[in-house]
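A reminder before we start the practical. When you read a complex entry, don't treat the lines as separate problems. The point of joint prediction is that each chain is placed relative to the others, so the output describes one connected object in space. Small molecules and nucleic acid strands, if listed, are placed in the same frame. In the example below there are three entries. Take a minute to note the order of the lines before looking further.
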Amino acid sequence: MNTLILRETTRVLFTLILVFSVATLLRGHDAPGGGFVGGLIASIACSLYVFVADAKDVRRLVRTDPLKTAAAGLALAIVSGLVGILSGGRPFLSGQWVEIGGVKLGTPLLFDFGVYLVVVGAVLTFVLEIKEPASVPPADSDK
Amino acid sequence: MSWLLAGAIVLPLACGVLGLSLRPNRAMQQWVSLVAGIGHLGIATTLLVTVWSDGILVAQIGGWPAPFGITLVADHFSSAMVLITAIMGVATIVYALCDIDQRSLVKDFHPPLQALIGAVCGAFLTGDIFNLYVWFEVMLIASLALLISGGRKAQLDGAVRYAALSLVATTLLLSGIGLLYGMTGTLNMADLHLRVQQVENQGLLSVVAILFIVAFGIKAAVFPLFFWLPASYHTPRVAVSAIFAGLLTKVGVYSMIRVFTLIFTHDVGYTHGILLWTAGLTMVTGVLGAASHNELRRILSFHIISQIGYMVLGLALFTPLALVGAVFYILHHIIVKANLFFVAGATERLSGSSDLKTLGGVYREQPLLAALFFVPAFSLAGLPPLSGFWAKLLVIKASLASQQYWIAAVALAVGLLTMYSMTKIWVNGFWKARPASTEKPAPLSRLDRALLLGPIICLAAITLAIGLWPGPLYDLAERAGHELMAPSNYVEAVLGTSETAALGVGEGAVE
Amino acid sequence: MEAVIAVLVGVLMASSVYLMLRRNLVRFVLGLALISHTANLLIFSSGGLQGTFPPLISPGELEPGPGAANALPQALMLTAIVISFSVFAFLLVLAFRTYQRLETVDPDSMRSAEPVPAEAGMDGPASGGPQ
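Here is the predicted structure of the whole assembly.
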């Protein structure tokens, strides 16, 4: 798997795919795209990197525990739902909007961004789990 | 009050997320989980009290009106189930403080546990059938994470079987939902109740009903779809298998009851007839399987199956009394069954074995534990002053009232066999002298002992209380049962209009 | 068109059942992936296949124009795809770990959780007690 060609193309593609994934995330409100697809595209970039590098390198690159990234995404999604309740007692997950400099920003974007993080975190957890050698629990190792 | 409904789901999920972000600090995870559990108990109690005084509570997620958005509904049945889930949650968290301590190999216990509790409550409270599927899947992933944490061989083996059958079940459920949507054009359960009556092709409706029976049947572990349960429930840590034993299969039964009282009532003779046979065979095979095993948790796993039969029986008879019995049975059973698993775990911790061949002398060495085993065990068998007696009495009375004498006879015989199985544990594990080959483990510290026995004592007290004063629980079950048999209140609460108006295109259905 | 989709659903379902019945965990996992796609296709066709335009509402109007496809089955499918994707990823890791630990992909020779009675005496009970 780990050939020179793959390694060098990954170097270029990694950034490009990440930028593309963010673009997909942002256009997702009323055009094809969104948090899930964007997250998947980003996790393709990460998976490519996992293929060419060691699991250790990848962990150093992403810095945080991928599960924590997923947790942060879930937290963002929950917060985006709570905004409606806190600003005037609307039901959970009601959309709320603010206009900043002509751009309308709303809770659905926050939700989508949360989904993006969840997908990246979850996929990275799974991919790293396969890449890293299994740790055998001592209780069982003697059979 | 709509925040109560969302809160019962979101609070555990949010605490699961918080716990995940606290990795790898297990002590903090524990405390967050404990606080969340107690908070959840508070929300669930408030929810039940509110429903008891004000009737059915409805919340429209995102403010989208009923047949279009996702609806959360709390009637007496679902809010009682949420309360019992919260009780089980707290009991499991406290038990796990000792069972899954800092030294244990199980690294992440509390985050998936909280996610599981949230998903179970979601499945109980949702009024949207597709949303039910989503909660089933969340439940599946959370329970798989719990099942394999620790990574022992038996756990992986059990988890493969569990995952395989559960995924087939959810796929069948999804197909059933797709077909149902194709026929009716709605996913809201209250709206479905009205629209299935207008479906022309009633035969296709029965086919879809069978798909739902199979899907929920796998989840509920009824005959002949139960093989995943005894293969996996004895493998994880005791705290995990206790909450699985108490809650997970019951979510399947709950969904079955909900769907087969609210949606598929077009051909009761056919669908509920199948359920009746299933119930009988489930009771018998479960108890026979239990009689043939020697390991405590494997015996108890088979008893789950056998007891599921009684609950399905209550649904299959489809009379108000039978449904009251089924609801009563579920509520009593969750507490009793989880408690039995706790006792099995405590026995293993305190006496060093969980196999009847090598276990012994518990009565002499741990008299308190023996007494605590007695209460849930003989409640399960249906001995008079305990909660199981009333539950069995209601179901059997209902089957006699519908003149299904053979099923009443089966239920009684299975009760007897359950008694045999529990006596077998009592005689071999508790009365028999300790075999010379078995070593006594080192005694636990006083705090660990309290953490281990505390939840058992509380749950046994609840069992005893239900047995001695069955009145309040019976009233609750009666209200829930009658609500299930006459869904017009449910429909009206969800759609906010009278039935005839809602039969229109769905425009006046805004609450 | 509906007949074609119906046949396709049938063929896919048959193939996935065939895969799932093989004595090989890897094939089983692939079968499960296939069966979830079958269910998605079923939902897709249950919404009716007559609509040919994307269900987008043009500015100033309140409902999509005539001939728009039904959006709800697509939303359901998307949710189902997301879920089956995550479950599939989980299952893949589970199967891989199982293969590593149990050194087999044949479900019949996985006897750790339910040892055959003759072995049970030697290996001790497969229980998850204190370790």
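Discuss with your neighbour: Chain A touches chain B at residues 65, 67-68, 70-72, 74-75, 78, 81, 84-85, 90-95, 134-137, 139-140 (CB under 8 Å). What might explain this?
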